[in-house]
Amino acid sequence: MPTRAVALAAALSLSSPAAPVAAGDFSLAWPVDCTLGQDCFIEDYVDQDPEPGRQRDFACGYNARDGHKGTDIALLDFDAIAEGVAVTAAAPGLVLRTRDEMPDDRLMRGVTDQTACGNAVLVEHADGWRTLYCHLRLGSVAVAPGDIVRPGDRLGSIGLSGRTNHPHLHLQVSRDGALVDPFRPGAALGTCGTAGDTLWQNPPGYVRTGLFTARFSNRVPGFDEVRAGTAPIDVADPMQPLVVYAIAQEAQTGDRLTLSGEGPEGRIFFHSLVLDAPQRSQLQAYGRKAPDGGWPPGDYLGRAMLTRDGQVIAHRFAHVTVTP
To answer: In the record, what terms sit under GO molecular function (predicted)?
Structure first.
């Protein structure tokens, strides 16, 4: 038997049996040391809409990005990067490749299509399955090619490497080179509907409500400006107002939305409201005029967060740089 097959067989023999799923005996354990709704949430799923410029998740909701090929498990706080939130193997297998040389840089300087995944670990499993773990923190990768891993073994920590401006794990699943949505593995890509079978050993709950976007602007924008792309700003004059806006999709009455901003000298605003009879898409914004003398130069961070019964169901970061 080839060495790789022996290694994979050994890895499988060391794992505990998982409940059978539609895709055979392959299943996934939760790959991040976090608790959904408390310090992390599922931000985006695999995009099931093949039409460019549109997105649908596996349940026909809006919690995906155009062309997105994985499941994004996002953290709520940048400070958690330094604390070290572990990324762990979701299934037994053999480490094929790793990368641990890219800086944690939310501005994504020097990132190309070839390095968009950032620091990463690629694991091969039995029967043609592979899992890819992206955006790991520089210096955190804890495995090397040829290592055998079991579910729960540490692979690295969530970081900001590659094409990302916020801390999250991008988990990508494939079989025989073809992308698979772990929430609907038995269905053809490009379709959505009832979830049915899943690859998850303990399937995380699905929340249809989400935040379509959150950005900085220098005014309270309207829907037409947001759709046209004229509302957001990446660079601001120190005398301009700073406003964070967000679009909530499929929110429910009683959901709480918070909008906040912070800069080099700390928090600049915080606004919390309970949504009352929200529409299918609802735009909310909040901000402040520039203080006397203008905003201090530097990077500013905005946050939009939706909670339901005290649990985080959606969260987005926004960024702007105030120039001197």
So the answer is: metalloendopeptidase activity
- Amino acid identity of residue 303, one-letter, is R
Q: 3-state DSSP call for residue 33?
A: coil
Residue 245 and residue 127 share a domain: no
Q: Could you tell me if residue 170 is inside a domain?
A: yes
> Measured at the alpha carbon of residue 170, what is the angle toward residues 166 and 174, in degrees to the nearest 5?
165
Please tell me whether the overall predicted TM-score, pTM, comes out greater than 0.85 for this model. Answer: yes
Q: Would you say 130 and 156 are in contact if contact means Cβ atoms under 8 Å apart? A: no
Task: Please report how many Cα atoms fall inside a 13 Å half-sphere around the Cα of residue 196, on the Cβ side.
Answer: 14
Residue type, 170: H
Are residues 176 and 286 located together in one domain of the fold?
no
Dihedral of alpha carbons 25, 92, 41, 58, sign: negative
Q: Which domain holds residue 305?
A: 210-322
From 132-136, 258-262, 278-282, the region with the lowest mean pLDDT: 278-282
- Same structural domain for residues 154 and 279? no
Candidates 84, 65, 63, 62; CA nearest to 75 is 84
Reported as a pLDDT band with limits 50, 70 and 90, residue 3 is very low
**Do you know the residue count of the chain?**
324
pLDDT > 50? residue 11: no
Q: Examine the domain organization and report whether 247 and 172 are in the same domain.
A: no
CATH number of the domain at 215, please. Answer: 2.60.40.10
Question: Are both 69 and 21 inside the same structural domain?
Answer: yes
Taking the CB of residue 270, how many other CB atoms lie within 10 A of it?
Answer: 12
pLDDT tens per residue, range 188-241: 888 999 767 899 999 999 999 999 899 999 999 999 999 899 999 999 999 999
Which secondary structure element, helix H or strand E, spans residue 318, and what is its range? strand 311-322
Asked whether the CA dihedral 262, 271, 279, 48 is positive or negative, the reply is positive
Does 14 score more than 90 pLDDT? no
